[in-house]
């Protein structure tokens, strides 16, 4: 039946090599110890997997380009250890800069110091609310939905 269906509809093209691997589920709200436990179990039970995905919860206060040192105290070593187990790691992030002045958040500090933020015609920085966080990102100011499906709106 499958051959007849393929003859009728045409064969499905082969997937790109990048998507041919097996992925573990995206891990949310789990600390480093749980990520390591899951990776260990995948290997000990010989469950085929090539990739572990980490959702945005690995970040400090969900701020892009950060890692929560409480939940992931040895993040760099964890990535190396997963690689040694032949598990790639994909880290998910929302590309924006959090509005976090005076908090030691390097992307904000460097963006502000270098005058890199998008500005309104009045020369004031343009920010948007997306979900619960105020953010700076040119793409958030279009009428698109944010990463969590929230409507992003301009603020003054």
Topology:
Elements (H helix, E strand, L loop, with lengths): L1 H8 L13 E5 L4 H13 L6 E4 L20 H10 L3 E4 L5 E2 L7 H8 L13 E4 L2 E4 L16 E3 L1
Parallel strand pairs: 1-2, 2-3
Antiparallel strand pairs: 4-6, 5-6, 5-7
Explain what the structure shows.
- The protein has helices spanning 2-9, 32-44, 75-84, 106-113; strands at 23-27, 51-54, 88-91, 97-98, 127-130, 133-136, 153-155.
- The protein is an alpha/beta fold.
- The strands form two sheets. Strands 4-6-5-7 form a four-stranded antiparallel beta sheet, with no helix packed on it. The protein has a three-stranded parallel beta sheet with strand order 1-2-3, covered by helices on one side.
- Helix 2 links the parallel strand 1 (23-27) and strand 2 (51-54).
- It is flat.
Calculate the mean pLDDT score and round it: 77
What is the strand tally?
7
Could you say which overall geometry the principal axes of the C-alpha atoms support? Answer: flat
Oligomer: single chain
> Order of helices and strands, N to C?
HEHEHEEHEEE
| Largest sheet: spatial strand order | 4-6-5-7
What is the alpha-carbon Rg in Å?
Answer: 21 Å
Structural class by sheet pairing and helices: alpha/beta
Spans of at least 5 consecutive residues with low confidence: 138-156
Could you give a short account of the major beta sheet? 4 strands, antiparallel
């Amino acid at each position: 039946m499958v051959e007849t269906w393929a003859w009728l509809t045409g064969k499905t093209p082969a997937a790109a090599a990048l998507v041919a691997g097996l992925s573990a589920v995206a891990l949310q709200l789990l600390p480093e110890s749980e990520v390591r436990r899951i990776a260990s179990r995948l290997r000990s039970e010989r469950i085929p997997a090539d990739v572990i995905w980490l959702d945005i919860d690995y970040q400090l206060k969900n701020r892009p380009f950060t890692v929560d040192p409480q939940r992931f105290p040895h993040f760099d070593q964890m990535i190396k250890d997963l690689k040694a187990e032949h598990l790639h790691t994909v880290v998910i992030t929302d590309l924006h800069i959090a509005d976090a002045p005076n908090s030691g958040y390097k992307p904000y500090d460097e963006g502000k110091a270098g005058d890199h933020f998008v500005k309104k015609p009045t020369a004031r920085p343009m920010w948007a609310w997306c979900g619960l966080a105020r953010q700076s990102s040119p793409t958030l100011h279009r009428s698109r939905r944010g990463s969590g499906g929230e409507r992003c709106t301009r603020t003054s």
